[in-house]
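ok so for the tutorial part 2 we go from a plain amino acid sequence to predicted structure tokens. step 1 is just haveing the sequence, like this:
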Amino acid sequence: MGEHITDNIPFKQKIGNCYVHVFDFERAYDFYTNILGLKPAWTSNDNNKPLAGFNMENGTGFIIVGMPSKVTPLPYAAFHFQCTDVAEAHRYLKEKGIQVTEISDSGDGFEFWDTEGNKLHTMAI
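step 2 — the prediction. this is what the tokens look like for a chain of 125 residues:
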């Protein structure tokens, strides 16, 4: 990988928003707020398209977008949620009935699925 000249490139080294498209918006909203504990910064139903935006601690936005028909879930974890204690996060999600993988051999994370079947990942900070 050679050197990159970024002076004339109009993009920042920052993610603005991550989007997860869902069909059952209410169920997904409940999962992200009541199970994962995300706090909505705003909600909208413009043009009958429900949206909920969450301002994450690192400045990246996380938005769930209600779709009019079923969408193909993410078959891979496109991003991860940080946690303070992997074993506790694993136990908590299992207790809530959330499908989880085993904790990685290194002990630093595991994968789990939201109500739409999107694969998510968590890692210790």
